[in-house]
Amino acid sequence: MDGVEDELPLEQLSDIKAKSIAEWIANERVRRSIVRHFRQFLMTYVDEHGASVYGQRIRNLGENNSESLEVSYLHLALSKPILAYFLTNSPTAMLAIFDEVALNAILVYYPSYERIHSEVHVRITDLPLSSSLRDLRRSNLNNLVRVSGVVTRRTGVFPQLKEVKISYCPNCEGKGPFSVNSEQTVYRNYQKMTLQESPGSVPPGRLPRHREVILLWDLIDMAKPGEEIEITGIYRNNFDASLNSKNGFPVFSTIIEANHVNKKEDQFAAFRLTEEDEKEIRALARDDRIRKRIIKSIAPSIFGHEDIKTALALSLFSGVSKDINRNTVSAAHQRPPPR
């Protein structure tokens, strides 16, 4: 009961008594209230059928040894709107709290989970407001944003220093310099990629703009150059020595620290067929004229060109793997025999 008394009621969280939302969240009573209400959201939010949404996701997280828990912003805004408001305006502090709550929630089902992963990362999906890369301004700094574009460049994966303890020597009371123990230092996976505006979104006569995106933990290698993706992350400023030397006064570059990466093609992969759709597909598969019907359905307004339409149909459906001398060869890598 003492812990509950030290928390603020949910209706009082919106009465911000600090200079900024970040300072308000740093208040211990406010933080405890956020922890309790987000835990309650994860455990009690249900879908239209009355089934727990995030209880099942947390169990799947432990079964698959994953470290990312996807949370829909729309669900959070519907159930706990004040938490959603804090999240968009102070995402760094809120995500740190969400990660802590998610880890404690999964430890209830899997007490040994920390032997595999020391942290769980809450990934925010379905952020309603989308911005273009050229529309990001000072007002978006340190806020949660959603942008889309094409990956043009990607670096390798590097270990980034996450936690190192620097203290004084108890024997001589010296304060350094000390050498870093690389074995006991905590690192995290780090990767940088360049996101450029999609060709169709660039205004006429303008050059496409780009932003650097930072990928951490299990988000590395989520996208490769040439893919069109959607990024939900924190828009930050970053000190750039080259800009300062060029301009002669403090100028900061900007980056996006990714929280969630979604490929545009994954939006179609997430589509689920209904039972009626499966019945119709199986009925079409039994049709003797299915090959001709598929070819005729390609560009029906263009007469003729049967060879081109056949080639398009075959490229859409691809083929099956062939077992040649016990070596499985993909249909995409087969070559016709020499004539």
UniProtKB/TrEMBL annotation:
One of its GO terms (biological process) is premeiotic DNA replication. InterPro entries: MCM, MCM_dom, MCM_N, MCM_OB, NA-bd_OB-fold, P-loop_NTPase. It comes from Grifola frondosa (Maitake). It holds the Pfam family MCM_OB. Its EC number is 3.6.4.12. The keyword Nucleotide-binding applies. This is DNA helicase. SUPFAM superfamilies: Nucleic acid-binding proteins. PANTHER family: DNA REPLICATION LICENSING FACTOR MCM FAMILY MEMBER, DNA REPLICATION LICENSING FACTOR MCM2. Gene3D superfamilies: mini-chromosome maintenance (MCM) complex, chain A, domain 1 (3.30.1640.10), Nucleic acid-binding proteins (2.40.50.140), P-loop containing nucleotide triphosphate hydrolases (3.40.50.300). GO terms for cellular component: DNA replication preinitiation complex; MCM complex; nuclear pre-replicative complex; nuclear replication fork.
